[in-house]
Amino acid sequence: MRRKDAANIPLTNAPIEEVSRLTRGVDEEDPTTTELRLPKVGGGFIFTYGLVYFGYFLALFMPALFSLPYKIQLVDPASKETVLGIVVGVSAIVLLPAGPIVGVLSDRSKIRWGRRRPFLLLGLGAYALSAVTIALAPNVPLVLVGYLIAQVAGALVGAALNPALAERVPPYQRGKLGALSGVMASVAGVSASLVGSFLTGNLLLLFLLPVAVLAVGVALWIFVVPDAPAPERFQNLSIGSSLRSLLFDPRKHPDFAWVWVGKLAIGIGTAFFTTYQLYFVLDRLGFTAEEAGRQLAAVGGLSLLATVGFTVLGGFLSDKLRRRKPFIYVASGMIAAGMVVGAFAPSLAVYIVGGVLLAAGSGAFNSVDLALASDVLPDKAAAGKWMSIYQVSGTLATAIGPVIAPVLLAIGGGANYTVLFVVGGIIALGAAVTASRVRGVR
What we know:
Elements (H helix, E strand, L loop, with lengths): L2 H5 L8 H4 L11 H6 L6 H33 L4 H15 L3 H11 L8 H20 L3 H22 L2 H5 L2 H28 L4 H22 L14 H7 L8 H30 L5 H33 L3 H19 L4 H19 L2 H7 L7 H27 L7 H12 L1 H7 L6
Helix pairs in contact: 4-5, 4-8, 4-10, 4-11, 4-13, 5-8, 5-18, 6-8, 6-12, 6-18, 7-8, 7-11, 8-18, 10-14, 10-16, 10-17, 13-14, 13-15, 13-18, 13-19, 13-20, 14-16, 15-16, 15-19, 15-20
């Protein structure tokens, strides 16, 4: 069986933008019509999609949820909360344009081997360099350098993977595939804390293991998913031109703008919780780092059931009902409720309740996140650019959240996780408001 047939994806290497015309004329077909003709993806593509996204999220979440806070605690235990906020916030701010720039460049890559694959491999290599740098870093500045490299790596891998939903998957399957990526994110989050708690004695392995998992997914992706150079109509751009091309008028694309802001609100709210949950369990509940990792994994195991349930059910129902917005309403409400419960948790049992509520809300959001964004893209023929712009909202959230968090934590003498989590819940509720303003999707 041929490789392409095994994945049951379009028999041409060209993604959607190569078979649709953007300059309208009397004999030209509407790109939306061409999009609807994308064939249904099969088991080969779905398995590969899930595996590579699991590796991608593990590479993102292991540092964010466990290994980076743990390393910073070793390097500077006295100021760990502030240092963590600085490292995460500064790296996100400095490299905020990286995702969109790489997305635009990948849209226009004329490399014969394909326009997405080179960025995928470069990202994998950057992740490996980042892991070694942080693991061996003797001080905070080198930890920051390592995490800056990790941000670049995430931008490269994201630019290669995120357009696939719009380019390769027909609209009626996007909810399910988007839900699958959400499930993989949840599994990766649980795995990050659990696996991390067993690797605290070997920092190099702690940081390199996620890269090895991602490498397996990347190898399969390259084998299964065809790729091709950008079509001729895409001209080569300078970095300056790439930056300018990322600007868009929200008044012309209001639906995309509202969806973007909604993701930002969810991202900022949950960033308060996920960035500082290890320190919360250490300082508020009194666990050691190893115990904290395993307790967080136990919480994550219960949360995983809620996340997967809401993600899978939400993805199925959103495709079946052809509705996305109700799931955003449910998601923002549950995330806010979970953060408020966690804010006042006096014990692990109460914290678990809050964590499960937040996880269920995240599952509801993940079930329609990428599908909703794909539905409102202003130009599906430049999916790499627009999906990268969309992902900037998540990157910006990771920049804003950790920068604001130390200020909130300092209220009342320090370590005020109650204020931090309550404010995060209020911000997350903003996604319900933005979703209500979207007109092109129900």
